[in-house]
Amino acid sequence: MATICTRAWVHGLVQGVGFRYSTQHEAKARGLKGYARNLHDGSVEVLAYGEESDVEALMQWLKAGGPRSARVDKVLAEPFQPREEPKGFTTG
Fold it and tell me: What pTM did the predictor assign?
């Protein structure tokens, strides 16, 4: 299996609803590394690093709406090349 990294921006009602912590839980359950962090425009940036199938599964979860408390309007994602492998999955 291939290791990949994807960076995504999730737009909608995704701040103040436990979105980052739910994303962290989903990512850790899949063995992914990276982060979920709030951005000033009200969106959440997600970096997912790990096995391709696990990263894709997390992206599908995000696109499907994430946690029930959130409302995801759109997810924009692109491949990303980190300078070094992330350590764990954080919410920063």
Answer: 0.96
